[in-house]
Amino acid sequence: MIYYARVHLVPTYPQFCPNPVSRLTNKDVADTLRLLADILEIKGENRFRVLAFRSAADSVEGLGQDLYTLHAAGSLTEIPGVGKGIAADIAQLLETGELAYLEELKREVPLGVVEMMRVPDMGPKKAARLWQELGITSVAELKAAAESQKLRGLKGFGAKSEERILKGIALWEARREERTPLGVARPAAEQIVAFLREHLAAEVLQKLEIAGSVRRWKETIGDLDILAVSESAEEVMAAFRQAPSVVDVLAAGSTKSRVRLASGLECDLRVVAPRHWGAALQYFTGSKEHNVALRELALKQGWSLNEYGLTATGRGSAPEGVQRFFDTEEALYDFLGLEWIPPELREGRGEIDLARRGGLPQLLTADLLQGELHGHSTWSDGQNSIEEMAEAARARGYRYWAVCDHSVGLGITGGVDADGLRKQAAEIEALNQRWRQEGVDFRLLRGIEVEILADGTLGLPDDVLAELDVVVASIHSSQRQDRETITERCLRAVRNPHVDILGHPSGRLLGRRPPTDIDLERVLQTCAETGTVVEINAHPYRLDLNDIYARRAVELGCKIAINTDAHSPADMDLMPYGVATARRAWLTAEDVINTRPLEDMLALLKSSSSSHRR
Ligand code: DGT
Ligand code: ZN
Ligand code: CA
Ligand code: CA
Predict the structure, then answer these.
(1) Is 0.70 topped by the overall pTM?
(2) Are 309 and 256 in contact, with CB atoms under 8 Å apart?
(3) pLDDT of residue 75
(4) I want to staple 224 with a disulfide (CB 3.0 to 4.6 A). Which of 40, 184, 262, 267 is the partner?
């Protein structure tokens, strides 16, 4: 992946394994500052003050550094646009998880009015007037009022403005239905879980799990679902509503609450009794399709299944009305004659039939990965030196790591040409030699992420590529070509015998850019023929290939490489997203080349080149 404009396009990902304490991400802090700005604007505060909060929010979000670290060093005021006042606000947020000033404002201005202001064509002034003069405090009320023509009585509002507002609400509703990338949603869920674990005694919180699509590692998320076992549900609910990222409580029941987070994401928490845990966790993990299939299977055996357990229908061996409860999911699946099914497989794609025959695939696990084959250094747009990246890879238990910087000419800073690659080679060889002398079992590989140019030729000549251990070829330019053109372009690269791996084949960026129009089926077929390895790019904004195409690739006979495309050591912690995508694609260790020891893996890459030549 390329960071075209790091500050605006690529948010800093909260590390995959956050510290065990609940920490706010930079994005949480940015969202909170934006909320503050919006409320101030509705109150008609000084425009510059509002702008100050907004621009501080933008810098915080694009920072690329952890706020806690900056705060510890006393350097919050070094963030562009952050003066003493806002630095103090940020410090308070980091230390207490709350901003007293914002809490005060929230008591003054209903959050529904802030949402009204975010409806296209509304803005702060109109929202404030409709609230103050008509007492409208939510988008739902606004919609009802516009539909029943109650706005036109107000000075400056007519039939036309009612129409415009209704159009705006329709747009706003469509936007709210957009799904959130897993890479944003998962850390948000983990943060809430960490907060609850931290703030509730173990006796109170007996069990706690993330359920829903996040547990299944689906690439985009509608809402978060969290499930707990506790004898004091009220206490759990109260703590939940206090979690630092929560800005609004949408429903507060005794065993179920729903809240909205600063990011706009919504989260359900349910507390269930211990004996219902197995069935509840199974039910709320989904997917709906999996649950429907499981319920049918249960019915065939004379049981009706719901989120509490099984009830005999009288059509099986047990008398009607008899109930069965399960402490664990395993016990429930087992009772129905099934192997336990990993959440990543629960999409209703044939997993239940296989589980009944005991034939589920032996899914890939993260600990089996021996190295990565696509990552960057300061030689192109990476943030760290080759040595720093190598040390990070070693620290994660890898045996090898391929230095694959961008080829020159992409309009980014850096990028390597033939000369650069030679100098890189010297740097890499010196490091490898040192490790050899020290008896360290780790090797840096010489590689490149070479651009597939608009006409399908590569960004560097064949004789230069021939010297490298790993050639990843990918597309970052002319992405709007028509289907035939971009497919042929990619096929030409795949057929080049020097190309070992096809990087992020679809080019999509979740939530910001659709895939190119490429004919992936044809591309994958060709990769299978030429022995070109296909990448699962693990970066949560890419997940490319996705689960569906990765499964198809292996069906067609392709081998897969899973890479984080790391631009910094922290990026390497995103690997679980790639592994989960592979698991959702039913992949085993056998399908993934970077589970192999170095020599085997290199032999596989070489055999691909020779199969080209046949
Ligand atoms: P999402 O939130 O759209 O990313 O996807 P999920 O899978 O998290 O769906 P959600 O939050 O609506 O519901 C959580 C789980 O609860 C879902 O995966 C399965 C279960 N569930 C919800 N509604 C139904 C339903 O109508 N029928 C069945 N069988 N299960 C349901
Ligand atoms: Zn890359
Ligand atoms: Ca959900
Ligand atoms: Ca839900």
Answers:
(1) yes
(2) no
(3) 93
(4) 267
